[in-house]
Amino acid sequence: MTMTQMFRRVLSLALLAGLCAAGRAEAATIISFDPSSREVSVGDTFSVDIRVSGLGPEESVGGAAFELSFDSAILSGLGYGLDPDARMGFALDPANDFSGGFSPGLLDAFFLADLSLDHDALKALQGSEFVLARISFIAIANGLTTLGLAPHQFAGTFLSDALGNELAATAQNGSVCVGGACNPTPVPEPATMALLGSGLAALIAKRRRQMRG
Questions:
Q1: In terms of Cα–Cα distance, which of 132, 127, 36, 117 is closest to 85?
Q2: How far apart are CA 202 and CA 182, in angstroms?
Q3: Is the pLDDT confidence value at 158 over 60?
Q4: What is the mean pLDDT of the chain?
Q5: Which among 185, 157, 180 is positioned nearest to 38, based on CA atoms?
Q6: Lowest mean pLDDT segment, chosen from 15-29, 75-89, 98-112
Q7: Pairing mode, if any, of strands 159-160 and 166-167?
Q8: N or C, which terminus of the chain has less Cβ within 10 Å?
């Protein structure tokens, strides 16, 4: 094999690896809030789901670790349920990382699926998506808060598969608006701006005529 042929083969392999990596990135599992945004009033209690979606045919979730953050001046956590639909079998908490409630503005979650279930059994339960956790809040003050998701600081990743290997996943944050006044001031449409401009010009012209008279 000549040096030119070797270089071409190495280049082809590199391009193929890049395409495979890009394909995996596009197909990465997503962890998101359902619904992604909520509007509530002070005193309302409500729940949001953390949903796993986009699982490929060879992907199942054997473990999960995440941190959920929110503004504790706007919301207060009431409780949470892991795997509420039993799609991970009997979910285990091996490290006892749950404190039995919320820290101010933060919920830590680190748990495993039923260790007796292999990939095929988990896949049959989970399909391509399922609810990973259900979180309950009470709104305590008006305002807008982000519901943020980050990998657990000790695990460093959101999900693992049935064998304990990292399962590539990306997170999408959510939001909760309390009190209904969370939307930014709308930007005037061009036609509205033109109308305002013409009105202002007419007012200035009238003022100048009065001053001259």
A1: 132
A2: 35
A3: yes
A4: 76
A5: 180
A6: 15-29
A7: antiparallel
A8: C
**The CA-based dihedral angle spanning residues 115, 60, 118, 79, taken in that order and rounded to the nearest 10 degrees:** 20
HEC profile of the chain: CCHHHHHHHHHHHHHHHHHHHHHHHHCCEEEEEECCEEEECCCCEEEEEEEEECCCCCCCCCEEEEEEECCCCCEEEEEEEECCCCCCCCCECCCCCCCCCCECCEEEEEEECCCCCCHHHHHHHHCCCEEEEEEEEEECCCEEEEEEEEECCCCCCCEECCCCCEECEEEECEEEEECCCCCCCCCCCHHHHHHHHHHHHHHHHHHHHHHHC
Give SS3 for 78.
Answer: strand
Which one-letter DSSP state was computed for residue 189? P
90 Cβ contact partners less than 8 Å away, ≥ 6 residues apart: 114
60 token code pair: 């199942």
Q: Mapping DSSP to helix (H, G, I), strand (E, B) and coil, where does residue 22 land?
A: helix
pLDDT band for position 213 (50/70/90)? low
